[in-house]
Write the structure tokens for this entry.
Amino acid sequence: MSASKTSVRKGLVILNPSSGPTDDEDLVKQVRSLLDQIGTKDSSVELKLKVTEGAGDAQRWAGAAPDEGFERVISIGGDGTAMECARGLSEAKSDLPLGIVATGTANVLARALCLPLDLEGAFHQALAGTARNFDLASLPDRDLRFLVGVGIGVPGQMVEKLDSKLKDSLGPVAYFTAFLEGLVENRDAVLDITIDSENLVLPGHSAIVMNVGRFKAFSDLEIGPDASPHDGKLDLFVIDHQSATGVLESIRSFFGDRTKSEGGFTHRRGSSIRIETGTPLSVQVDGEWVGRTPVEIEVGDEEVSLVCGEDYET
């Protein structure tokens, strides 16, 4: 893993104004005002703003950034926008740093990277913070890449059923409500799993494959403190508890043990995972619904450079 800190003189700012609870026009105005302030303080800094109008814009613009002479790409939006930028840079085979300003609902990636969540603080960190190389995992059968993780069953269904208006109005409460519904609807699921050379057949309403760990969720619960995005491995968790409290408490207990199978939880680590189910289950990738099982997941040598917060630890 490598790290670098640079003084950026030319940056591409990619804004998705439709992510999160802030009104689209208000967010655009706030970002333009912030860029004007930075330009006024230091005229040598050139920041070009592009506002997305549809899916694929961020990925295409980020992919073209290295050839256009930009020194850094800054994503302003939700987890989906950041991932589009990361995919674009990866496809361009570029090590250009990606800074992330989170304005979405969950902001999982920003939390995992210990980034500020206020617009001004996050932008200054994205512009001047240290960049580190992160494993970029993939779903090869769907030509998709991801940074945080894949959720199958309940976590996939949560994303599938929540529309943007509900997420914006209820915030995290919307996710938790869908989570409880998913526990009931997926209670009889059985997963046929191959992870590297090991085969498992397990009951489970949820399977979670994590690349980036160590972020806060559901108040003080720290998810994935030992999952590292720098080791070429993925962490797999299969969950078969029926109560929400049991799920959260067991995650707290089991994330530290890499080979444990007990009490409705299984935890394994590997670089290649395939999951099949008798009844197709919902699949989400970094907060985006992508379809249903079966699914193949792997991590190899592909990396992307991300700007981290000051408190980020490897």
